[in-house]
Amino acid sequence: MTDVLIAAAEPNRRRILQLLASRPRTVGTIASEFTVTRSAISQHLGVLSEAGLVAAEKVGRKRIYRVLPGGLQKLQAEIDRFWTDELDLLVADAHALRSQR
Q1: Tens-place pLDDT, residues 21-51
Q2: Contact (Cβ atoms closer than 8 angstroms) between residue 75 and residue 4
């Protein structure tokens, strides 16, 4: 399973998540917002799907992609955990530098 932070780190995938946050869309509708190929968008959607951030529903011949709230919650939890740890290290480094002066 793809890590949610890795999946969301790529700029095109972040933009796809932003688009899908407003409403479900087809691959073609998503691809029309980018300069990359439809095939590239499909690959990005595959990564996001594998990470549990989006899901597709087949409607006739089309696939409608939507954001999975649980996936976004997992992403938010990872971001919160990352920032908490990183900020703690930054504060510790700042205190160490100040005490060296």
Answers
A1: 999 999 999 999 999 999 999 999 999 999 9
A2: yes
Domain 4-100 has CATH 1.20.1740.10: no
Tokens of residue 17, six digits? 């998540």
Look at the alpha carbons of 71, 74, 80, 84 in this order and tell me if their dihedral is positive or negative.
Answer: negative
- Residue closest to 63 by CA, chosen among 44, 50, 40, 45: 45
The whole-angstrom separation of Cα 38 and Cα 11 is: 16
The candidate with the shortest Cα–Cα distance to 27, out of 40, 8, 11, is: 40
The residue ranges of every structural domain in the chain are: 4-100
Helix (H) or strand (E) holding 57, with range, is strand 54-59
